Structures are given as C-alpha cells and as structure tokens.
Fold:
Amino acid sequence: MDVEKVFHMTGGVGETSYSRNSSFQKKASDMVKQVILETVEEVCLTTKPKSIGIADLGCSSGPNTLSNIKQIIETTSRNNKLLQPAAPTEFRVFLNDLPTNDFNVIFQALPEFRHQLKEKRNHGQDDEIGPSNIYIAAYPGSFYGRLFPDHCLHFIYSSYSLHWLSRIPPRIYDEDGRSMNKANIYISESSPTQVSEAYFEQFQEDFSLFLRSRSEELVSGGKMVLILLGREGLHHADRGNAFFWKILSRSLTNLINKGEVEKEKLDSYEVHFYAPCKEEIGEIIKRDGCFQVDRLEIFEVEKNIVRNGMSYGRMVAMTVRAIQESMISLHFGEAIVESLFEEYGRMVDEEMAKEEIRPITFLLVLKKL
Structure:
C-alpha cells in the first residue's frame, strides 16, 4: 500500500471528519501552548527577522492549525513591535501535509481567520497585524525529505505527525511477501522480534531524514517544536499507545468471528506507526548532530474531554476512525467501518474499566546548530 497516495485524515466538516474529532490533539496543543509561544519569542530575539518563515508540518484539515498559527502571529507581532517598532513583521506561513489532505477546509476558514485578526487591529488590540503582512500557502508533500528552499524558515511546528512512518516497514514481510506479524496490526506481545526491529529501523530512517531536511531549511538559530506519540520504556507492547492498536486488532478479530471480515485481510494489514521511547529519540538526534535538544519531555493528555455525553471509548473510537478510515476502507472495504468502530469504542471502555490506559506524548524543542 502506497501510504503517501492513500493516507489522510477524514476531510470535510461532517460528524466523522477529523475537523470534528481532533479534540484530544487540541487539548495537547493547549497544554504546551506556552512552550510553543516562548520558543517563537526566543527565535525572534535571536534572529530579529523582518520576515519570519513559519511551517506547520502535518497540518491536517481541522481547526487546530489556524488556531495555533493565530496565537503565534499575535505573540510574535507584539514582541517584534518592541524590538523593531519602525517596521511591522511580515509572516510567511506554510501549511504542509500529504497531497491527499483536505486543504480546502483550511482555505475555507481563512476569511474568518483574517477577519479575526483585522478586528483585533481595528479595536486597537494589535495594530501590527493585518491581512497585508500575512502570507499563507499550502505545501503538499511528504516531510520525509526536502520541502522548502535553504534557510527560509525560522520556526517549525509539527503536532501528532512524526509517529506516522513514511511506509510500512518492508522487513516485516517474509521472502514471499507475507507479513510475519499475523493477527496483529502493530507490535504486540506475540510479535516476532524482527517486527519490532523493523519498525524501529524505519523510524530511525524517517526521523533522521526529517532532521537533516529541516536543518537545511531553517536559518541559524531557528527552532522546532515537535509533538508526537511515544512510549515510556524500552518494552514496545505497553498499556499505552500500542494497546490502542491491540484493541483495534481484537475488534477486527471479533468481526472475523461474526463473518464480516476475512482472516487473511487482518493478517495482511499493518499500520505505518511507531511509538518511540525517549532514549531512541535522543540517540537519533545526537547521532545526526543537526540539532541541540532544548526540551525532551513526556506528558499525558487529560481524559476529561466531554463531547455530547460521549464515553471516553467512543471519543477515542471517533478520533481513531477520523485518522485511519482512509486506510481501513481501502483494505477491508467501507462496509465494515461503522461496526468496527462501534466495537472498538465499546472495547476501549471495557478495558478502561479494568485498568487505566496511559498513552503518552513527547514534547521536543530543538534548536538548529
């Protein structure tokens, strides 16, 4: 399966869209908002740009992207007004995701985005901000490789994107092209050792290429804030992010038992995902030598998000569906999607009643050397 041609969040603004089902991602962004804004301030103090280049890599199609960009622009404008009162800062904002992403949802939200900034200026809250000095463009393509010209960016932000691999690791297949990870869609307790090794090798390859590419595109002193899913220890099959994939495998198995899915379909389905640990991330950054680690922290997204009386399991199911539906529909067929995620939400709630599931997130702040 060609991930770059197939994988995308569910577009539009409907009930099952990513736009309507990204509240966990929004919560995480809010939790680290101060770090993001402080990092942008530090870059501006160091580089003193008249025109600042900002990129959101893996922007997807929901409201979170423009919300983050708006806060960055407002904070940067206020600070730069004190540093360079004679000339308003120019903003070059690049929104990146795979070509299959629904960029139209973002474009349709731009008039309101510009209106809000204009209203602030008209009410005297920030006379440095206006549509005339903000330039926003979409940059479709994989961020595992070069996207932008040399030294054109000052700040890069990527939220919940770098745990997605560029491809399903080829080494999980035997010489006949069959998966060695049968009945699993990710690393589990029953997975052969070579499966976890293959996933880690692919993550190393991808993350290293990402770092080298961004190093060429950032100015000296430029910084990145990266948010990605991970795991706490060296053991892959923990009761965290890996456990959610285990529940999805079990949900598919239940559909097999009901005659709705063929077993061969499950045996040949893998996710292009990897949850690294802190040591793995740190070692790759150190080995590549392109960036200095300013922060490498672990946090958990609060589970007290309420949406129309939905249970936690139902909200997780809607979130995972908005992320995985494009891949699952292609492989298993659209007919199973509703029943699969109903089953999945129920099983997440059942497991949460037995014992807490603790998916952890990493926050990285990297400075170009």
